[in-house]
Amino acid sequence: MTSLLSIFPLFPVEASQQARQIDELYVALVIIASIFTAIIFVCLAYFAVRYRKGSRANREMRHPENLKLEIAWTVIPLIISAGIYVWSAKLFFDLHVAPKNAIEIYVVAKQWMWKIEHPEGNREINALHIPVGIPVKLVMTSQDVIHSFYVPAFRVKQDVLPDRYTTEWFLPTKVGTYHLFCAEYCGTGHASMIGTVYVMDQADYQQWLAGKSGEVPLATSGEDLFQHFACSTCHQLNDMGRGPSLYGLFGSMVRLQNGQRVIADQSYIRNSIYDPGDQVVAGYRAIMPTFRKQIDPDQMAALIEYIKTLGAPAKPAKGTKQ
Amino acid sequence: MADHSQAAHAHQFDDIKQQHEADSLGMWVFLTTEILFFGALFLCYGIYRHAYPDAFASASHYMDVILGGINTAVLLGSSLTVVLAVHAAQHGERKRLLVFLVMTIVLGCVFLGIKGLEYSHKFAEHLVPGVDFQYAGPQPGAAEIYFVLYFVMTGIHALHLLIGIGIMTWLAVGASRNRYGPDYYAPVEVSGLYWHFVDIIWIFLYPMIYLIHVYR
Amino acid sequence: MKMEQNVDYLNVAYGPRSWLLSTDHKRIAILYMISITFFFFVGGFFALLMRLELLTPQGDLVAAHTYNELFSMHGITMIFFFLIPSIPAVLGNFLVPLMIGARDLAFPKLNLLSWYLYIIGGIFTLTAMITGGVDTGWTFYTPLSTAYSTTNVIPVVTGIFILGFSSILTGVNFIITIHKMRAPGLTWFRLPLFIWAQYATSIIIVLATPVIAITLLLLIVERVFGVGIFNPALGGDPLLFQHLFWFYSHPAVYIMVLPSMGVVSELITCFARKRIFGYYFMAAAIMAIAALGFLVWGHHMFVSGQSVYASMVFSALSYFVAVPSAIKVFNWLATLYKGSISFHTPLLYAFGFIGLFTIGGLTGLFLAALAVDVHVTDTYFVVAHFHYIMVGGAVMGYLGGIHYWWPKITGRLYPEGWAKFSALVLFVGFNLTFFPQFILGYLGMPRRYHVYPPEFQVLNVLSTAGATILGIGYLIPFTYLIWSLRRGKHAGPNPWNATGLEWTTSSPPPQHNFDKTPIVTEGPYAYPPFEKTEVVHGGS
Question: What is the ipTM of this complex?
Answer without folding.
Answer: 0.94
